[in-house]
Write a structure and sequence with these properties.
Elements: E1 5-14, E2 17-27, E3 32-36, H1 43-51, E4 56-65, E5 68-69, H2 75-80, E6 83-86, E7 93-97, H3 98-112, H4 120-133, H5 138-141, E8 144-145, H6 151-165, E9 169-173, H7 181-193, E10 200-205, E11 218-223, E12 226-231, H8 234-242, H9 245-248
Parallel strand pairs: 3-10, 3-11, 6-9, 9-10
Antiparallel strand pairs: 1-2, 1-4, 4-5, 7-8, 11-12
Length: about 250
Amino acid sequence: MENLIEIKNLHASIDGKEILKGIDLTVKPGEVHAIMGPNGSGKSTLSNVLVGHPAYTVTEGEIIYKGENLLALSPEERSHAGIFLSFQYPVEISGVSMTNFMRAAINAKREALGQPAMSAADFLKLMRDKRALVNLDSKLANRSVNEGFSGGEKKRNEIFQMAMLEPTLSILDETDSGLDIDALRIVAEGVNKLKRPETSTIVITHYQRLLDYIKPDIVHVLYNGKIVKTAGPELALELEERGYDWIKNPQ
């Protein structure tokens, strides 16, 4: 099977400080990968580098996505190519309704792919269908982006955006942060419903509990800027029991 994304010897820094110190990671279509690790290990840096955040500098290595050099693409081009990041702390955008925001995003992607703009009727139908998928209240969809939303509503809104944009590679950066168990279950169910044989997900999390709902095929431990251990789903359970300290000296 051809790889969807292949990260080779990736080094990256911010403000002159090296955070990623040689990441190697390959994700095939249809796979769910979980990346776990303590605070400061580089998990969010990896997600930001993948989407092209300008504050981060790649100093070495390469990322091949769908056979192309991802690092040569702008953040907008990466989005149009099917990469989506669900933020740990979604921002509020005052004065911009969710409806207008999503319509602009979808039509920008369609334009980049050489497709005509989506009609108002088709867009509203798509929005209704996808809203139902993640149990997003219609009132929220008509408000400004994330404005006045609870933490759970913001995260649900992120998965709704993911459903609308239909990415090939979804990166969930600590989507479980601050969620109660009911909100966590609803968000995870939305992610699971969106899974396709041709799409992949990278789930970045501290805790096993999210992985009770979004079942990973492969679990990686990121520690001090490197992936130091890779195994099946049982690795997440072991981390839950033993914490991360044993990774320093797994013997």
